[in-house]
Amino acid sequence: MRLAMPLLLGGLALTAVACAPVAGPAPTALVPVYATAPIANYDWYLHTDGDEASLAYGLRDSDDLRLGLNCRRGSSRLALSALGETGTAPEISLESGGEAALYPATVEASELTDGVVLSAMAPATAPVFQRFQAVGWLAHRQADDIHPYVAHPGSRARIARFFAFCG
Predict the structure, then answer these.
(1) Domains of the chain with CATH codes
(2) What is the pTM of this model?
(3) From edge to edge, which strands make up the β-sheet containing 116-123?
């Protein structure tokens, strides 16, 4: 009986392990790693005018802007604007380095594209913007599409200056 007990307990342990739920794969990052490389000619650009500042992602000195952040000095509030497709949900969904946020938006027809312009308000201190400052990219999700807006190495200081300005 002494010899049988360890075998019985060992068999029960193996049965319990075999019946235990199997963990699925680890959750994936919100934005695939390959998507966090800068795109040639697109970058984050900072503009200040008195007590107003804007940080926009797009082509320099053009109307081709994908995402804009605007604020008044020290306000800690951001006015967000993003391009969307006609029929887009009235929201701006942002992700950065594992943080995500969804902001209800107003929708207006775009004068420059066939799509729409989404506008929303957000706190400058939101975790998604804290991560953006740390990792240098901010992604805009629309339905199943994700658009990562990645800073070139030389422009990360502009992002820091913008958030310091906004408070």
Answers:
(1) 37-166 (2.60.40)
(2) 0.77
(3) 42-49, 52-59, 65-72, 77-84, 116-123, 106-109
